[in-house]
Amino acid sequence: MGVFISGFSSILTGLNFIVTIHTMRAPGMTWNRLPLFIWGHYATSLIQVLGTPVIAITMVLLGLERLLHAGIFDPTVGGDPVLFQHLFWFYSHPAVYIMILPGMAVINEIVACFSRKAIFGYNFVAYSSIAIAVFSFLVWGHHLFVSGQSMYASMVFSFFSFLVAIPSAIKVFNWTATMYKGSVSFETPMLYAFGFIGLFTMGGLTGLFLATMAIDVHVTDTYFVIAHFHYVMVGGMVMAYMGGIHFWFPKISGRLYPEGWAKFAALLVFVGFNLTFFPQFILGYQGMPRRYAHYPPEFQVLNVMSSAGASILAVGYLIPMIYLAWAWRYGPKSPQNPWNAKGLEWEQSPTPPPTFNFDHPPVVTEPAYNYSGQEQEVEIGGQ
Amino acid sequence: MSTILPFAQTETPTNYLSADYGWKSWLFATDHKRIALLYLFSITAFFFVGGAFAVAMRINLLTPEGIFTHDTYNKLFTMHGIIMVFFFLLPSIPATLGNFLVPMMIGARDLAFPRINLLSWYIYIVGGIFTLIAVVQGGVDTGWTFYAPVSSSY
Asked: Is residue A326 packed enough to be buried (19+ CB in 10 Å), middle (13-18) or exposed (0-12)?
């Protein structure tokens, strides 16, 4: 029930974003000048609007099955349990892209700002976001490799799973190319961005291992899978989220957070995260299954290591809660653009913003990420 | 000689935080920035609830025999998954940073449908309350993937 209801929240937010991005851009803000943050959220909203209704229907069917014993999924009355898996994963796979695309969107902004350079290959990154959204709907069967699904279907899903990794890889290359010959500085948001790029790559590559049927048969439903998705979701998305919160904290609160504590917490999160989840790759490969409360004693050392890491990770997440709450009330007031970043939200809106965002409606004349200060070719009304 | 200004001029200009005070101005806000903050606080709360389940799991896994029964452990990982996936990961960046920044980055005053935005937050909270009620009533133990026929028969 809870999941069914909250899905509507997702659909409505996605709808809101799509309409806003299509219809409410400022004069001069063409699609090609949009920050890649917007492209990422646009792609996310497409998935939200198209995919979430499927999980809603699935939950309704599940509820009907529990109430009426209708025989949709229960084999003893003629249903098909694998049908549930297909329905569930048809949404839940795109759902993970709903999670990661906004994370990548945040990273675009942070990497550009702290390399003082426009994102390399803007068009490639923008279209990769859309490509990920489209391809995400074609790969759900890779969760069903051991469910009795036909081998030929599995081969197709495996192939598409490899394909969907390509746009993500393009983005990683582009972020790296952005940093090349840029003027890189290491403030807290950039530390989280570095963490994202490294850990997301590791998680993504292990995803390719899992997409390979021959390997998946060995490691499916083990801790290898758990480690993979925690690398992409926690090492990826949560790090992007923390980086984004720190990057825009001055804009949101009008104050600056303490940089020293922030860097320390970022380091704790990175160390704690790796200590928690890297041993799980090994555990899974050695055969420890997931969702088991008890395990054979030979797995204990790695499990203890993982739990120790979890405690460090927990502290690493608690510390920002404390200093961000402190800084909200007592932090030093922030200048309008503390990072000297490009973008309408930094350059034209006061910090923190008034209710209607801009004192005067902005007119956009420069391309996105205009860190090198090139003016547009057309000067209007020049003498 | 001091001049009298025609209207009261405050030191700091009015921003979205100081525009209105009181719980009603927050719970009935249509300003996308305030709604983003509403989401931020609820999402952070859910993160720590889901995290508490994770800590319980990791404590259990310190020893091969564990401290919880199988049934309890099943409920722990299920609720960790449901809360983290549906109430933290999925909304996090779009609903907080997205809500806050999308209109500002494109130069708009607000989202296209501000009241639907507020409705989205209320729907999210209702969904969350249902899930928390499920936890209190004993918890789901199917895994966050709810595979049938376990989830449809018991």
From this structure: middle
Q: Helix, strand, or coil here: A222?
A: strand
pTM: 0.89
State the pLDDT at residue A381. Answer: 40
Cross-chain CB nearest to A307 (options B44, B59, B103): B59
Q: How far is A46 from chain B (nearest CA, A)?
A: 12
Cβ-count burial B44-55 (b if 16+ within 10 Å, e if not): bebbebbbebbb
Query: What confidence tens digit (pLDDT) does each residue in B113-128 have?
Result: 999 999 999 999 999 9
Considering CB atoms only, which of B31, B85, B151 is closest to A355? B31
Q: Which of A131, A111, A109 lies closest to A368 in space, CA to CA?
A: A109
Domain ranges across chain A: 1-184, 186-363
Q: Chain A closest CA to B96's CA: distance in Å?
A: 9
Q: CB of A187 within 8 A of CB of A259? A: yes
Closest CA to B72 of B132, B128, B135, B127: B135
Q: How far apart are CA A182 and CA A179, in angstroms?
A: 5
Fold of the domain spanning A186-363: Cytochrome C Oxidase; Chain A (1.20.210)
Separation CA B63–CA A296 (nearest Å): 9
Which of A97-106, A330-339, B144-153 has the largest mean confidence? A97-106
Cα distances from B32 to residues A23, A355, B113, in angstroms, run 17, 9, 10
Per-residue pLDDT averaged across B46-65, rounded?
92
The overall average pLDDT reported for chain B is: 85
| Residue-wise pLDDT tens digits, A206-240 | 999 999 988 888 888 899 999 999 999 999 999 99
